[in-house]
Write a structure and sequence with these properties.
Length: about 120
């Protein structure tokens, strides 16, 4: 599964780069934002494998990260090139922070839950 996640992320990243260089309606600025979103989302999905999560947390977080990745890609496409004061960049940053915090909290809760079961 890890290889699939990395391969899928790499394919999406390469497609994003190709579209950014070929399509005039897709500026390089937006391509750069979406490259960051793709790398971040792929890294979070890959990190799920190495966290001590229960199966329910792993499945739900995988779906949540996928959905939020799509939302961030749409926001990245809509982002104006004048990024100063852009609410879209703030929204993408907040979503990324929320995802990372959710992963950390779920990891801690799963560890505590397994300690209670075992101890």
């Amino acid at each position: 599964m890890n290889g699939f996640i990395l391969l899928f992320g790499l394919i999406v990243l390469l497609l994003n780069i190709v579209f950014g260089n070929v399509l005039e309606a897709y500026p390089l600025f937006n391509m750069g934002i979406n490259c960051g979103v793709i790398v971040f989302t792929t890294a979070l999905m890959f990190a799920l494998r190495f966290c001590a999560l229960s199966t329910a947390f792993r499945i739900s977080l995988f779906g949540f990260f996928s959905l939020m990745g799509i939302v961030m890609l749409i926001l990245g496409i809509r982002c104006p090139e004048d990024w100063k004061g852009s609410g879209i960049i703030i929204a993408i940053s907040l979503i990324m922070a929320f995802e990372a915090i959710a992963l950390a909290i779920c990891n801690v809760v799963s560890k505590l839950n397994s300690e209670v079961k075992n101890g």
